[in-house]
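Q: Study each token:
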Amino acid sequence: MSDIKTTQEETLDGTVVYTLPLPQDLKDLDKMAPIVIKQPYAINYLHSYGQDSPFFAGLSNKKLLGTRCKDCGHTYATPKLACQECGGDCEWIELPNEGRIHSFTVCHFGSEEFLPECPYILALIEFEGVDSLFLSRLMGVDPDNPGMDWVGMKVKPKFKRLSKLKPTDVWFIPA
């Protein structure tokens, strides 16, 4: 018996077709409706963080950066290039290494990246002396047993050891 392959492995990825209507008379093929399929498509996307680049450089160096208006002093946990209060220019600052939970939600459905981790928790973190909140993942608590006692709980940031230059490089845990 020969070791020459005569079949291919059947998989369930891509488009799976069981039967496709075919006219009895092959002369009628030109009247057949077009076959339309849906299949995944991946590309490498070149993306610039532009003005937010220092924020991601901070995450890769285990530092959480925000901004402060040079004119009115309004401070942002989520960095802004221009102040939303007075329109002035903002400068980069390091945020405190501890915050408190302002509010949270338990997500039972998420994007493709988070779907395997459902349920997960998103929390708005407030920092002393900072005028806005920072949205991030909250870990180290049970998403199946949430409680209002989490509001006000002290938390601290944790950073990925190997940065992916994504917002998910930082998350918070109870302090």
The longest strand covers residues 99-107. Residues 50-174 form one domain. Residues 137 and 171 are 5 Å apart (CA to CA).
